[in-house]
């Protein structure tokens, strides 16, 4: 449970950084909402993203393993972008504001998120 909570919070920081970096191409929450509401929205999006990445991600990656090997790992960029877009679709179903402006922006966002998660997890793990 502790590992899931730390992964969730690391994902929240990574998603927030990615949304900040990509500007209008990736939004989490309504800009007119108060700060507490935006933080709650960020935490909900991070929760959905963590669940999607933890449950669906490994299944898709195992099924795509030959393609991942053939593309020397570049297929992982596509898989991660699709997981991010799936997160967008799920949060939309629950009326949570999360927006990524298309597939290629999702690819870029997934790269930023992966790099951010690595940095934040490294900082959190070095206490």
Automatic annotation (TrEMBL):
PANTHER family: SLR0284 PROTEIN. The chain crosses the membrane at residues 39-60, 67-90, 102-124. Pfam families: Phage_holin_4_2 (PF04020). Keywords: Membrane, Transmembrane, Transmembrane helix. It comes from Aeromicrobium marinum DSM 15272. The lineage of its organism: Bacteria, Bacillati, Actinomycetota, Actinomycetes, Propionibacteriales. InterPro entries: Phage_holin_4_2. This is Phage holin family protein. The keyword Transmembrane applies.
